Amino acid sequence: MKVTPGSPSKGKLKEESSWNSGWYDFYPAIEHPRRPVEWSDSSIIFTGHGMRPVICGRYFSSSKQFILPSPPPLQTEPDSYEPVSVISVSPDDEWLFAYFPGHNVPGVCCFWKRGVELDKWTVRDWWTTPAGVVKAEWIGSGREWICDPVSGKPTRLPFRGPRTPVSTATVLLVTENRQVILCYFRHGASNFKMLSCSLSKPSFTNESTSKTETEVANDLNTVRICTSAALALNYYDSFIIVATRSQKYPLPLTNGQYNPIDISAPIDLDQTRMEVLRNIPEDYEEESTIDLCAVQLNFNGAMMSLITHPLPSIHTKEAKLKDMHFAVQPKTDPAAPGGLYLVANYFEFQDYTTVPVSSVECYSLARSTENPNAWVVNQESSRKFDEGVVTFVTPCKPISGTWGVIAGVYWKSGTQPRASAKLKETPVGSLHILSIPTLTNDEEWETSPILKASDKPGQDVCINVIASPNNTLLCTVSASVWTTQTSLQGIPQRKLKMVDSLSAALVAAILSQRATTDISHQLSHHSLSSNVISDVLVHCFSVLDDHHKASARTWIQQVGVCLETYRLKASRTTHKHEREEADARWQIAHDICSLTACNLIFEECKEGEDFNTDAVWQLVDVSTWIMAFLEKMMRECILQWDLASSAHSDDPSDIPPDMLHFAHPQASRNVLDAVMNVKKFREFLGALTARSENSQIAKDVLIDQVDCSGIDLAGVIPILNELHDSLQTVDAAQARQWLASCKPIGAQQHLRTHLPRILQPKILDRSRIFIKPSDLLDGLSGEQPRTTCHSRGRQFWIQCTSFPRVTEDLLTMPKATIPSLPISGLFGIKKPSGPTSMSLLNQLQPLFSGSKLFASPEKLEQLQSAKAKRRRMKRGGDVKLGQGGTLDPLADGVLVLGVGKGTKQLTQFLDCTKEYRTTCLLGCETDSYDSEGAKVRTAPWKHVTKEDVEKALSQFAGEIKQTPPIFSALKMDGKPLYEYARKGVPLPRPIEPRSVTVHNLKLEEWLGGNHSFKWPEKSLSEEEKKAVEKAIQGVDGSATIKDEPETQIEGASDVPTAFVLSMKVSGGTYVRSIVHDLAHAVGSAGHVVTLTRSRQGRFVLEESGEENDRRCLSWDVFEKALSQSAESSERDEDGWTEWEREVLQHIEIIQEK
Q: What EC number(s) are associated with this protein in UniProt (predicted)?
């Protein structure tokens, strides 16, 4: 780009008035390989790093990036590979494929599998290939939804391309050596399978004969390399059409073709060699043809096969090919005439002195009427663009309601914006929708500008482009030398009302389960008012309700769209009032979604009429959030219907957005269900005995949240029930309007009839609603901070208490200054192998109840009476004591304990990161997956090597699905799984796998046969084995339990092989299951013989060097104290026993405000 100077001025330098582009600005757009960009249906934009072989992902419209993990070759030798050249995401967003070219080494192809979170990806498979990948296309995707913006009727399109009945994650690759490779996972297989065929000649391959062929050069000195490719998946057609563009490159001279000569000798070259050298062209231009090939994928019931049929080539002009795409006409009737067209964009640089001349050509492809296997290709139209250079063309997605291509025209010159204007962006071109096959501008669509940074217009021309999931935005990649620069451009809109266009796109996105972020981005533009946003959402919700009959699923999806749209609106607007309004609206939608999630959690944790006690602490957390939400709503009711009762307004808009929870039928049902779930859970915990696992601690915590909240749930529920029943008469259109605006405008009279009844003193304790007991405590240090609570003009000043924090330095001093007794806190102990975790707590509770460290002086005095002692021996003491995640009797290591108020902090250790070290003994499988259980079956183990185990470990790294063992306490339909197994009752359904994350898994030590571990002597009887078989066969009719004979290997030891693993895992991970599944993966059976937990959150066995880590207290300290009486225990000058001093040095004191 060069700047055209203006006329000279006097006194100061005059700003440049215009800019002009040069041919060099456009040349990078035709170079290969181009920097790829991909926009997934979950709204993640994937790009390659400008200099390194890594892939970056960014969730639109967030600025936060993440990097995908690299396959092993790129980790060990990153300098041997170039930046990624191909990125492709599967339609279901579960898989990602990429190709990295190599520097004098074969390139690397890699597949990633996505986890539960959008930014969690793991390498699933990879391989090297000398032939580079040019194009990747996924097949076997689901049917697409479209919505006519005029009629508003949603329609589902048929399948495109061949079906894949026995494979998943199926992708078709086109390589530089003009081959097509089918990569796929067969159901149940652990690795990708591949079939390859030539695109230049008829070929056939199947799973039993697949091999990779190589193309030969056309002549002695050149080779054809495919540089561009496009694939077409047509409706109602199993054939795949592949279009390729090739270029000839010179072959390097081999050692046999080059002989050093003596420069002093006379030159006498061979005449034949001279002829060959003379025939080599000076410039190796790309070929002036586009090669076509029909690819067919078949399945005969046993094997998959791949067949290719080359088609007649398309002869084109001698010009540089910029883009090549297929445009497929959507059709819903198999008999309807369909259209398949190839659109190509060309550059002609001529003498490289001016900007290139660009043209677009359209070719039609149709089956021959005489021969169904033959195709007829014709050029339909050609168009030159004099007003600029067409730097890209890309097909319109069918969901946009049109059939054509988007053309980006960059101007050759333009006006340079003045610096005083302070414009961030300036137009440098325009976007057009071109009709197919005429390539004329579609008159139904507007033209939109291409914007670039004002400081460099005409530079960094777009080299690649991708449309957003819902065809509302374009993401372009510029030709920057060092970094990958992306920018967003708005796709032209229809010449219809924006309400109809955007609502149609929303309907198609919601029905297709795609992210709607790109549509919300358009809706949240500062030029659109809240009323326009509400109109678009109402129109969308109306179509969805008519289509799905207002189901609960579509309703929560509608709430999600409101949440996303108003949240983006709040972040993008600069007007204070609009930002506050949008903030209030998205918070309402967020609360509705949160309540729905809480209700789903309660449903998932129910076992008949009761609740699963394994999830008790999670349900306590959920109940705490619901009670906090209900208190907030009660405060709002007091301010709206009681304190302001003398100043009621009849203005329909004068109503808080929070009241939507009580005005909308589905929202009120949500609130009612949440309150009823908390009440039922409170009653359930109250009925449990103190001996139930964690029940007593959970019950105390929940009582603090529910019974002391100031809200009588039994009195609130009937009123909410009556309110919900009365809302059934609300007009559906009115309810949609309230939801779309996240505000129940005009609902005052309806709410005024029911809500004031909640404010009765017997139902609501106002003092507790507004002021918590902790707010009334006197602070212990200096000046107290004040916080202001604003609620529509009313201010409540609350004195906040600030407690001094006890640091670890203070605790480790010889004479620690202890805060007011008794104390509460968290500390870790080193659990020994053998006893259960609960038995250790039962031993510690009398000890703690008799210590002034944890018991109040009044409690200690009461314990002096004989009656109190007998009661304490029976109940175990009055001090609250709990654990943050149990350990099996076999296991040893970190066990986190909570004392007093510290028990409320234990839930954080259930889902925290944990580290283990375990020993696996091969050849034997037990019912409990460890050595404490009974032997179920034996399997060969002598064939297993250290390398086999190391290779199999990769299957269990990252985000994995883990199935709990059938001999476990996990309940199904109210009955533990082990009862099904022991009684021979068939499982009612398969055991649901759980998503867990294995952050690190490593083989620490290979013991081989050098150990003393043995298989368990106890075995399941034949009757017990048949019972287990019968239970499993309820979901797997072919399941059997039988011993497998050992393979005789010469020189192998008769002692079963053992090895040690170390791992870092997420909460909820079954270590025993990892060992069990790993043994199966190497063709054997195995069980755990040792298990040590070395870390649980911040509590560790040994010093790790990390700042916040805390070492655990040895159990020997407590065992010594338990063996002594309280009178015989030695105390220091401050009155502390040895175990109390140790606890003070290790405990993390909890001060609750």
A: 5.4.99.25
